[in-house]
What does this fold into?
Amino acid sequence: MRTEKLPDERGYFGEFGGRFVPETLMEPLLQLELAYYKLKQDENFKKEYEYYLRNFVGRPTPLYYASKLSEKLKARIYLKREDLCHTGAHKINNAVGQALLAKYMNKKRLIAETGAGQHGVATATVAALFGFKCTVYMGEEDCKRQEMNVLRMKLLGAEVVPVKVGSRTLKEAINEALRDWVAHPEDSYYLLGSVVGPHPYPMIVRDFQRVIGDEARKQILEIEDRLPDYLIASVGGGSNSIGLFYPFLEDNVKIIGVEGGGKGIESGLHSASINFGKVGILHGAKMYLIQDENGNVSPTHSVSAGLDYPGVGPEHSYLAKIGRVKYDIATDDIAIKGFYALSELEGIVPALESAHAIGYLIEHRDDFPEKEPLIIVNLSGRGDKDLGIIYALWEGKNE
Ligand SMILES: *Cc1c(COP(=O)(O)O)cnc(C)c1O
It folds into this structure.
């Protein structure tokens, strides 16, 4: 089956995806789907989206040849520089797209969930840009760990609501955001941050992130006059990775998604949903999910908050199942190695999420049979937000 045509009209990628939601959510989801299909064809909408990507986000982002890393690994390695986007990561691409969608749908208020705060900041940013009210749900535990992002969202005019149930993290924050949306479907728009959730979200978020891969494809053909041998990206919910991968799915290009291996698989403390999860339903969609024997969602761990989610997008679940994309893992330690290596070799301090892709490549270079493979790595974000974590390790290291 041609991947280009998915999801099907019921929102499925093979057996994955769908719309497993209570009756009260059906109506707003169907309205969103209808509006999206219409606006996708709308020239004014497209022009406005492109305008803000160029002038507000700072696109196109460079495809940068990492010469010293390339030399070290005997490869030709290009970095897709999403770290240079306004607000420091790829999440703003989707936030701008969906905020415009909300504007064209005449909504007055944005609702969002956030884990570490990156998507909350992106949403608060576009709310300020387009003049929406904004409410961000964030687990109480995450609010404590990420005080600076809470402040940033408030500076941008958003209301941040700490969620005090369950594990007080992202999973509960999504539930609360959905609850708010059910209560205010008329004036509010739910701006979901990754390629997860019920149909049509995985499709909408992918479509707004595919700009990464569309640009990269054009850029590599211009620079190298051929397609790459490999694409590598980190996989949390899966938005930066599907954004890069999607325009290459029909090509003869090997594709690797890197999940958070946490403290190692034996420890049980990881977030490798495809590698070590089973098919289940979370937040309205069928996907690979980290769960116990009874089907309860298990606690997850990753040194990078952006990968710390028990599920993974339905399209990734499908691409794993049909074998089109290889999904592997990088542990916290390997990611931290990647973090140091890119900082020292290239003068680029990556987000810890992106450092999983870099660390994976360093660790597995010998598994690639090509003498000098041509590789694009998605540098999904910059590392400023992670300096606190690195600082703590650094102190420990020098004691
Ligand atoms: C949120 C985030 C991720 C993980 O989310 P995806 O939806 O899998 O892309 C990766 N990198 C950065 C920098 C992030 O902020």
